[in-house]
Specification:
The chain is α+β, with helices and mostly antiparallel strands. The chain has a single domain, classed as Glutamine Phosphoribosylpyrophosphate, subunit 1, domain 1. Helix content is 30%, strand content 22%. It has eight helices and twelve strands. The relative contact order is 0.20. The structure holds aspartic acid. Aspartic acid (ASP) binds next to strand 8.
Amino acid sequence: MALLALHGGAGGDGPWRGMTPMDPQRIACMQGILEALGPRLESGELDALTAVRLAVEALEDEPGFNAGVGSVLDANGRVSMDASIMRGEDGAAGSVVGVTNLRHPIRVAHDLLERGWPIMMAGPGAEAWAAEHGHEVQDPNTLVTELRTAQWQKWRDARLRPGATDEDDAALDHDLGEDVDGPGTVGAVALDAHGKVAAATSTGGMTGKPPGRVGDTPVIGAGTWADARVAVSCTGVGEAYLRACAAHEVGVGMRDQGADLGAVCERVLDLVEPLGGRGGLIAVSADGQIAMPFRVTLMYRGLWNKGHISTGIGPDLA
Ligand code: ASP
């Protein structure tokens, strides 16, 4: 049995009002990834780690998502990206923080995982390491899209509004309104044919974040976690996921014999939510359970489960 679940970020307040014009493209991207990788995972050709890396690379390539090309812009109107990846079998991990010129941050995080030391690199040091190790480096401006520029301008105008506070400053993608929408952070979790799990997450962070801000995504145990029992990828207001060590908490909850993954994930969101952690997470367990809960209007989701593909944005997965 094999499972592959994807997310493309979460956000928004109130009921879901249906697809925006860019949503079919995002759903098609997820569908294509699941069609391409699902059978190879099921047949044993791909292990869980390779599947989540390839899935997140493809999501980083889709400009409609907030990772790689199409990342959101910080307060200065620049892209800086975070990514991490973890293998459940042996707890191997890799992570990059605040990188500005990498085509595929997740590929560099994966390379760090494979080499084993160091496991986490930030900023110019990470970029230099990536270039030295043959990774694709590009002009940061080529990662900036019109959608994200429009979103950033909207964020900047709102910030100039009288009465706006620091708390309003950084915004999840869907908080910026439908006319300049854009979903977010991407992630993947997989269970392979050998019963092993892995997780990966990649993001441009939050629109208008102060340069240097680090969210949960690159932090092993906060935004990404995998152990022998479960793999987890989170999305939402990173500060809350960091403070709750959210992804690792799912791992802790799954240590009990016969634990129910859905119930464990809901308990973790119960911890995250009071800290301001609007968002969701996806998780698969080595015993074949799957959970994709969220506590906001929408979370872009895709699932490959025994040859059946389902995708969804609002409450339903079809
Ligand atoms: N968790 C990400 C961050 O805080 C944002 C997101 O998931 O949309 O950087």
